[in-house]
């Protein structure tokens, strides 16, 4: 397995450290704001309407069927975020397909207006691809498979600071890239095609955080965000 520093789009560790300690502000002394208290989904919307209480289950929020059973739907935060650290726990069902969107400008078109970190039941896969858990969906594969088996809780942290994106899954840094290097529509850094109509460097730098319903049960809890300056 290659070291993270050799991964396409990798940034120096010193730069990443500097980004993560950047000054921040929020609802508590550490700068973190809770997006889900384990009881209500009051910080979230679906199609401009409140998320049904039925989607809150045992201290977690499950976006499945939040869109009335449609194949692909996203519940999203009322607020928009630009530079931030997002932290949460998630647990997938067997063969689950879901995702965490960020900087999503248009909730009606999440794929082409925002970024997605894939949430997928890919535990045990030797070489993860661009559609496996932790990937920058359809663009950049995770450097390693850090996913736990279905039914176990995982922890993920997503950092977006200007053009720099980092994903840490279960303590392993699996994505690290600079969006400014993604200059061609429909083309990834390794030359392979992707589904995006715009170059990733031209995607919005601010937008909603979203949790995807892709017709499987998936649970999210301890959802917190820290804005970065």
What does this structure look like?
By secondary structure, the protein is mainly β. Mean pLDDT is 89; it is low at 1-26. The chain has one domain (13-228): Jelly Rolls (Sandwich), CATH 2.60.120.560. It has helices at 13-20, 110-113; strands at residues 24-25, 32-34, 44-46, 49-50, 56-57, 60-61, 73-77, 84-92, 97-104, 115-120, 154-161, 164-169, 172-178, 208-213, 218-228. Strand 5 (56-57) and strand 6 form a beta hairpin. The radius of gyration is 16 Å and the shape is globular.
Number of strands: 15
Structural class: mainly beta
CATH architectural group: Sandwich
What's the structural domain tally? 1
H and E string: HEEEEEEEEEHEEEEEE
The CATH homologous superfamily name equals Exo-inulinase, domain 1
Number of helices: 2
Fold blueprint:
Layout: H1 13-20, E1 24-25, E2 32-34, E3 44-46, E4 49-50, E5 56-57, E6 60-61, E7 73-77, E8 84-92, E9 97-104, H2 110-113, E10 115-120, E11 154-161, E12 164-169, E13 172-178, E14 208-213, E15 218-228
């Amino acid at each position: 397995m290659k070291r993270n520093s050799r991964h396409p789009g990798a940034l120096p560790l010193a730069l990443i450290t500097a980004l993560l300690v950047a000054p921040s502000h929020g609802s508590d002394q550490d700068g973190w704001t809770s997006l889900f208290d384990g009881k209500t989904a009051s910080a979230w919307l679906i199609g401009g309407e409140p998320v049904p209480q039925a989607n809150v289950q045992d201290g977690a929020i499950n976006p499945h069927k939040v869109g009335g059973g449609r194949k692909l739907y996203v519940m999203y935060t009322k607020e928009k975020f630009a530079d931030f650290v997002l932290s949460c726990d998630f647990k997938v069902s067997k063969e689950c397909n879901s995702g965490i969107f960020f900087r999503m400008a248009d909730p009606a078109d999440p794929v082409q207006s925002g970024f997605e970190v894939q949430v997928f039941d890919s535990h045990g896969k030797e070489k993860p691809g661009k559609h496996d858990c932790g990937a920058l969906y359809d663009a950049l594969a995770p450097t390693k498979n850090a996913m736990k088996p279905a039914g176990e809780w995982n922890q993920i942290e997503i950092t977006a600071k200007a053009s720099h994106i980092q994903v840490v899954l279960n303590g392993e840094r699996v994505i690290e890239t600079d969006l400014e290097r993604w200059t061609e529509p429909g083309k990834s850094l390794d030359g392979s095609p992707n589904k995006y109509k715009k170059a990733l460097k031209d995607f919005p730098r601010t937008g909603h955080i979203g949790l995807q319903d892709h017709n499987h049960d998936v649970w999210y809890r301890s959802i917190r965000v820290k804005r970065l300056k």
